[in-house]
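Re: export button greyed out
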Amino acid sequence: MSQAFVCTQRATLIQSVIALAFCILLGRLFYLHIWNHEDLADRAQSSRQMVKVIEARRGNIVDQRGNLLASTQMTIDLGVDPQSIRESDTSKLPELAALLNKSLEEIETAFATTSRIRTDGTPYLVRWVPLVKGLNQEIAAEVDALGIKGVYGNNRYARTYPGGKLAAHVLGYVNKADVAANGVEQTFNYYLRGQDGWVESERDGRRREMAQYRDREVLPHDGLNLQLCLDQMIQHIIEGEVDRLAEEYDPESISIIVSEPTTGALLGLANYPSYDLNEYYNTQKYPVANQRNRALTDSFEPGSTFKIVPIAAALNERLVRANQEFATNLTHMNYRGRKVNLPRDDHIKSNSLRLNQILVKSSNRASAQVGMLLGEQMLYDYASAFGYGEPTGCDLVGEGTGVLHPVRNWDGLTITRMPMGHAVSATPMQVHTAMSVFANQGILMEPMVVRQVYDAAGESVVQFRPRAKRRVISTETAELVTNMLTDVVEVGTARRTARLDGHFAAGKTGTTQKIENGSYSRTKQVTSFSGFLPARNPQLVITVVVDHPKVYKASGGKVCGPAFKNIAQSCIAYLGIRSDRQVSAPLALKPLLLHGTSRMSN
Amino acid sequence: MAQHFAGRRSAFLRLPPAGVFICFVVITLTLLGLVALFSASQAMHDNPAVLLRKQIIWLVIASLAGVFTMFINLDALRPLSYFLAGVAIFALVAVLIPGIGVTVNGAQRWIDFGPMRLQVSEIGKLGLLFALAHYLSNNKRYLDQFVRGFVVPCGIVGIFCSLILLEPDFGTTFLCGAVGGVMLFLAGMRMKFLIPATVSALTGFAILVYNDPVRLARITSFLNVEGNRSDSAYQLWQGILAFGAGGLQGVGLGSGRQQMSFLPEAHTDFIFSIIGEELGFFFTAGVVVLFMMLFFVGILQLKRAPGLYHYLLVMGALLFITFQALINIGVVTGCLPTKGISLPFISYGGSNLVFMFVLTGIILNGFRTWEFSTLQPKRDL
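Workaround output, generated via the alternate export path:
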């Protein structure tokens, strides 16, 4: 091609270079658009794609009367984007500080934190400096009204427990990582937690969602609500009693359980030491050990409260009559061709006791003889039937089983020691359910913690029914033993402390030496009382266990009896349990007062 | 060939078919630019029509300027060449004076005229074009002299380049240097002058870039786009992703996502990425082909130029358009380090649009007035 005014070679060179440059660009476009299309498109897509989780609201927990025990509130985590603040807002900072209850310096520092240094030493811009966490909505709205650019909050659900320490061990809590720990929060997490929803969407370069490209939105299903069998008032009563016992005896631990015998419904459960559910993380104030639900996890030798097992077993098997006499002055007996030592009974003066007096006097020696009448296997079978050595099936976490050795592991002394509640260990809950058998005509119930699961509209989703585990003894046997237990409270070891004014109560005291370094301690006792009322028509079973009360000659009657009585009487007043005691003579002389009394108890 | 072009002319504009074709190319690219601008500005403004309206106003001005340039007598303009260059140099100096020039992002490149803002380097380019064409065609035979063949022509290019460099505007400096250098080369500057001049200019440029951390970072991040994709090469990386996302057919007009704040300058320098994402390979390759054809159709016509002045003027105009297109597309596709060079006819920006239409006007002016090929080929009998 000839060029008019310029050197042809030079023009050709320039044209060739430009043509080559265009071809390179076309090749590059081909590479980007087509050759490398999938890789680049994926990268572009993945940098835009976002999945935003929409948190489901965790369900409430209420007591059997609908009082709120645990709830979830919308709170706001407030923070500031230091990159987008305006000079003109500086004058509003004192107001903000006042609203957030923080010092002006703190706020100003947060506003001035525009960059931080990475671990490798390079600085980077900060787009979010937290100001305050868990702000409630009213204050957040006021902060919003200030209109400071760059200050904004993210919504977050926060679990709150209006009762604080109330029923801490039954409820449990949800920790900061959203994991339910302890109590029904953990066991019924499946119902409570709900199902988080999500949005699949795209975001732009500033990480804001582009709502127009939402292509899937799954709404969250809020968690279901839980109605416990627990009664807030009864829980309150027993926690008051726990506090009183703790103050008076400074024990190592206390467990009190109250339930309904016919259904197994757990009306109240309290332990000492306890903790505040809203401050579970404060291990300085509440050591982690306080979170243990000792009524379920810790076992102790039940002692005399276990005597109901051999007595009831022997009666149920018709091996003994109610008026059969047992010698209490023997120190040794022959048992299956060998001589066995009988346990001591220092507090019993008479030489013999009838069967129905064994519990009243809490005779170790006579109980041992009853046990020997039963034999190892039958004693073991009945202890198992009463629920010893197996979990009660309570819907709370960490339940222990206690220890009930199989017969082949028994030593020569066990047959005489187990009937008095040694060589066996049980949790307070096991002692409690065993006692409930007598209050429920011989049937062992599974403790029931949750009454129902219901949805936001109040419709019941899952109903929990009382569950009977097995019949342990006949109704007649239960009645016979109940009479004996009533005598314990009326005239026996608990007569001074647990006897009720308006009602017959049945119950059994227990006092055992704590085992320390492999032998029984002389100074440390575990005292307990387990009983029910009214004796004829039982409505409440109450078990009180106090570990190592610091008092001279501690005994179940002395330490736990009054607690039983206080709780029983408060509950009687609260539930309006009808009096079953015959009108006593002094009251009969004052008809006016009687009238008042009966109306009260009705 | 040439006769065929010379023979058939449209009656109205006296344009040869090549001129009509160039008109077609320019109009197509401009319309594509408006469409892409409207799409890209959706993410930037609440009212996406704001930028479009501004651009259309500029387009009207640009068209008037282009048609005006098309019909003026280039020869009559020739004595005014140095005057034009003087005005351009005056403007380039004026913009550096604080108070007259407007500073945006640390560069003083604009003079504010109330509603309009003029990018002075565009006037500078025109001044350079006319001055160089005029000087070289006057002094062609003295080009082997040291002063007239080396000092003066290099001085002309040097003055414009250094003034633009002071703004600072490295991209435009490079562009002017390249166009000026090619014009010198074509006009027949001796290689013994040209090679040392080019080498020293490039060295000086490289030293300046090396001592400027921001621009050095652009170069280094260009060498490792993926590694720097979250900071210094962010825009470039997002632009490259846009091409990939577009694929063969594009994601559809208005459906592009990369301009949604991923590409901060989507409507100006990176508009080609938006076209790539929304319209796909066919359109981007089409744009490249159109620019290429614009250049070569122009080159074909050059042999009818009546003199070196005309030749260099039209050649310079073609080079400005072509180089700007090459550099811009090279940058957004990741072939060249980032520079602030806009894509002719397509990018948003008034001054550049007016300048491009003026250049087109110069080209068409030539096509319109050149009657014959000066050196006629032998006729077939």
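The longest strand of chain B covers residues 107-113. The button fix ships in the next patch.
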